[in-house]
Amino acid sequence: MKVRAPNGQNLSVEGNPWPFIGRWAFISWLFGQGGGLRFNVTPAGSAELITRELGDWPRFKVREASWNSRAGSGLQQGKRLATNVIDQLCSVQIKPVADVAEDIPRSKGKQVRGGSMWRFDDVDEKGALRTREAFVVNDSTATSIITYEPEDPKFISVAGSLTCALSN
Questions:
Q1: Any idea where the domains of the chain sit in the sequence?
Q2: How far apart are alpha carbons 52 and 69 in whole angstroms?
Q3: Residue pair 5/152 in contact by the 8 Å Cβ criterion
Q4: What is the pTM of this model?
Q5: DSSP symbol at 139
Q6: DSSP sequence for 13-69
Q7: Quick check: 85 and 20 in contact, CB under 8 A?
Q8: Over its length of 168 residues, how does the chain's per-residue pLDDT go in tens digits?
């Protein structure tokens, strides 16, 4: 699956044995003299459906923009994120590797199809597993794959099979 990110880069996601439930949503942080702004760039209507369901819709400003005709804003792009969901299994969040260089573990990760993988488990005070995350890093992307059911055996096969890449 290939999709164009808001900054013009191409995002490629391959190797997933289960389908994503929708199109990719992107979040970009832009910074200028007046501070920072977060932009959610999603397929038409998808953000509205979610925020209406959560009751947050009245606090958002909705704007539409043309891809090639906007004048310079003087803003600098900060961090970026692409996100999608595999139904009833996990969420997938992809960031440019340069945006998260400080978050990459210094230890050697397990080699998988998509790069080096680390697993992070979150346990409660009694030691019970609450959430599990696979973190896969390669030359262009850092991908967080967070499962809904930490013991689901399908999760590891998905985490080990995804290959994500951002064009330059």
A1: 2-166
A2: 30
A3: no
A4: 0.78
A5: S
A6: EE--SS-BSS--EEEEEEEETTEEEEEEE-STTHHHHHHHHHT-GGG-------SS-
A7: yes
A8: 888 887 788 999 999 878 888 888 888 877 778 788 777 777 666 666 666 766 777 887 766 655 554 756 667 767 788 888 888 899 999 999 998 999 999 999 999 999 999 999 999 999 999 999 999 999 999 999 999 888 898 998 899 999 999 987
